[in-house]
Write a structure and sequence with these properties.
Blueprint lengths: L5 H10 L5 E6 L4 H12 L3 E7 L1 H11 L7 E4 L3 H13 L5 E4 L4 H8 L13 E7 L7 E4 L9 H17 L6 E5 L10 H14 L7 E6 L1 H5 L1 H7 L11 E3 L3 H14 L3 E7 L5 E3 L6 H26 L1
Parallel strand pairs: 1-2, 1-4, 2-3, 4-11, 6-9, 7-8, 7-9
Antiparallel strand pairs: 5-6, 5-10, 10-11
Helix pairs in contact: 1-11, 2-11, 4-5
């Protein structure tokens, strides 16, 4: 069994070679969200602008002994205005990442996905968990467990590509994507198996790029080589997947929470398909998971800067 947080510590080491990422932090008005933003700044992961009611932010900092010296604070009257202003800072080019504070996720995402003033791109917006499971050798990306409720095939193409791009930004040596279902054979009575087969064929035709795909695969034969041997599955992905694409939000949510509460895993969360990475954290997250979410955003932002330079060249 690997040590707890071993994969996250490797991410943090990678970030030491990169500059702190300018980050708009929307409504950090409780101790956990404020501590995560300030702690990430001290680790030189992010360079935050704290957006929210100044008096409340300062009161939380004073109550919990959080040092705000040297940090920019932009006053906003409430959580809604904080979300609007945080998104505006990104559109103004003053931030390369967006971080959720203590406001509700829906409130922040409402501003992110607005057609005229938000941060959407040609890609479908989707969420990825980066799971650090102590009993598993590699970090696991799980998508989508937080944004798309019941995605159709067309939407899953972007969900898969977003996850692949994330894996490359995190410098996975090889990206192996398992399209999950309840079984490992295509069954017309189970729509997710048909969509899995279509996604794999789309990868063969380079409509999805940057990874090896296989599916449908049940969870056991996606991550367990023993299960693969028993079922005699011949696949470069089966038993070795490091990206798990779930059929819908319910399945993804249950998978991620099962790993967290039954396998002592931590889940770093990021939203992709937007102009900049959006750091989503939960009140239940450990401080290490919060730092890891920031580290993921730093690496994504760095990969996008590198891609932009290539495009100019």
């Amino acid at each position: 069994m690997a040590a707890k947080h071993e994969k996250y510590k490797q991410l943090l080491e990678l970030c030491k070679t990169l500059p702190a990422t300018p980050t708009a932090v929307a409504y950090p008005c409780d101790d956990s969200s404020l501590e995560a933003a300030v702690g990430s700044a001290k680790m030189e992961l992010i360079k935050p602008t704290l957006i929210g009611p100044r008096t409340r932010i300062e009161a939380v900092a004073k109550e919990h002994g959080i040092d705000l010296s040297g940090l920019a604070i932009e006053d906003a009257v409430d959580s809604r205005e904080s979300a609007r202003r945080a998104v505006a800072l990104v559109r103004e080019g003053k931030a390369e990442a967006l971080m959720k504070g203590s406001l509700h996720t829906d409130e922040l995402m409402h501003e992110v996905v607005k057609h005229d003033t938000g941060l959407t791109t040609a890609r479908r917006v989707s969420h990825c968990f980066l799971m650090d499971v102590p009993s598993h050798a590699e970090a696991l990306i799980i998508t989508d467990a937080a944004v798309n409720i019941a995605p159709k095939l067309e939407e899953k193409v972007d969900i898969v590509q977003n996850a692949i791009d994330l894996a490359h930004a995190l410098r996975f040596p090889e990206v192996r994507v398992a399209i999950l279902s309840a079984v490992e054979t295509v069954n017309p009575k189970i729509p997710s198996t048909v969509e899995a087969g279509a996604l794999c064929k789309m990868a063969d035709r380079r409509q999805i790029t940057g990874a090896i795909l296989d599916g449908p695969l049940a969870l056991d034969n996606a991550i367990s080589l023993e299960s693969v041997a028993i079922k005699k599955i011949d696949s470069p992905v089966a038993g070795r997947a490091n990206v798990l694409v779930v059929p819908d939000l319910e399945a993804g949510n249950m998978l991620a929470k099962s790993l967290s509460f039954l396998a002592d895993a931590d889940a770093a969360g990021i939203v992709l398909g937007t102009r900049v990475p959006v750091i989503l954290t939960s009140r239940a997250d450990s401080i290490m998971a919060r730092y890891a979410s920031c580290a993921v955003a730093v690496l994504v932002a760095a990969a996008r800067r590198a891609d932009s330079r290539k495009a100019v060249i």
